[in-house]
């Protein structure tokens, strides 16, 4: 089989594999393994980790509340402009995160479209923990919507039609039939959404800033530590790498195999 592999394909394939693997090998090789435990126990690291876990989880819950109905709308309802709506939903996937942060500032900032109204009722989103959650939701929710919409399109609609003929309302069909049927798709989308929110950097630092204990998540802590303490940056990067490997293990049946 090896003799049948065209050399013109083998060489670029190996170079591509090296490009993806070697940076990870370098990270593991330069890791301060002897001081890894004490570094992970530092208050700043624990604060950034706690904030990241809390905000990523809140962003995932918010994405589930908003994204699952949106995915159902795109998959089940025929309406004019559906392609445009789908394009707008997936736009944050290709939009530079910093641009997303600027856009959030122009809408929810103090001088934004809704910023004045929000401040009138005592709500301030920029440079706050809720702002981190909003920024992470903006960049992560499309992953959930795409996964759930794909699961809805692949589901057998005969079960939903049978429940409707038995007198179940549309919401009852959605709650009792559709959601259990696409449960694995929702779970996979939620995990991807959580992972994207955990690793969000650009929109967060632009919209929420980099304040320790309030808006400094793990990626922001890595960026800050890289300027003064590279060993700490490597330690934080290893922690994020471990989380990524764990997520791949959870999704191996759906995405890897």
Descriptors for this entry?
257 residues, mainly alpha, globular
Strand-residue fraction? under 5%
Shape: globular
- The percent of residues in helical segments reads over 70%
Distance between the termini: 21 Å
Tally the beta strands.
0
Class by helix and strand content?
mainly alpha
Order of helices and strands: HHHHHHHHHHHHHH
> Major beta sheet, specifics?
none
Number of helices: 14
**Stretches with pLDDT under 50, minimum 5 residues:** none
Cα Rg = 22 Å
Average residue pLDDT: 88
List the helices and strands and how they pair.
Layout: H1 7-29, H2 36-40, H3 43-76, H4 82-94, H5 97-108, H6 115-120, H7 129-154, H8 158-165, H9 170-181, H10 183-198, H11 202-207, H12 218-228, H13 230-250, H14 252-256
Word description of this protein:
There is one protein chain. The chain is globular, with a radius of gyration of 22 Å. With 257 residues, it is mostly helical. The protein is 77% helix and 0% strand. The protein is built from 14 helices and no strands. It has helices at 7-29, 36-40, 43-76, 82-94, 97-108, 115-120, 129-154, 158-165, 170-181, 183-198, 202-207, 218-228, 230-250, 252-256.
């Amino acid at each position: 089989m090896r003799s049948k592999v065209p050399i013109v394909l083998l060489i670029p394939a190996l170079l591509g594999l090296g490009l993806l693997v070697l940076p990870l090998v370098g990270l593991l090789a330069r890791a301060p393994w002897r001081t890894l435990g004490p570094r992970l126990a530092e208050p700043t690291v624990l604060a950034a980790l706690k904030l990241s876990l809390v905000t990523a989880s809140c962003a995932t819950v918010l994405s589930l509340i908003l994204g699952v109905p949106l995915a159902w709308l795109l998959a089940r309802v025929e309406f004019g402009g559906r392609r445009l709506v789908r394009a707008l939903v997936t736009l944050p996937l290709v939009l530079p995160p910093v641009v997303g942060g600027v856009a959030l500032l122009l809408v929810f900032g103090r001088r934004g479209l809704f910023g004045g109204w929000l401040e009138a009722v005592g709500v301030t989103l920029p440079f706050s923990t809720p702002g981190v959650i909003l920024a992470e939701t903006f960049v992560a929710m499309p992953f959930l919507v795409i996964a759930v919409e794909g699961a809805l399109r692949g589901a057998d609609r005969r079960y939903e039609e049978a429940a409707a003929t038995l007198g179940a309302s549309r919401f009852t069909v959605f709650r009792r039939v559709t959601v259990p049927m696409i449960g694995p798709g929702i779970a996979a989308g939620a995990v991807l959404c959580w992972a994207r929110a955990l690793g969000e950097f650009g929109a967060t630092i632009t919209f929420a800033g980099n304040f320790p204990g309030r808006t400094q998540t793990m990626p922001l802590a890595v960026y800050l530590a890289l300027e003064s303490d590279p060993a700490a940056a490597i330690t934080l990067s290893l922690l994020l790498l471990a989380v990524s490997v764990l997520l791949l293990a959870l999704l191996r049946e759906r995405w890897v195999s």
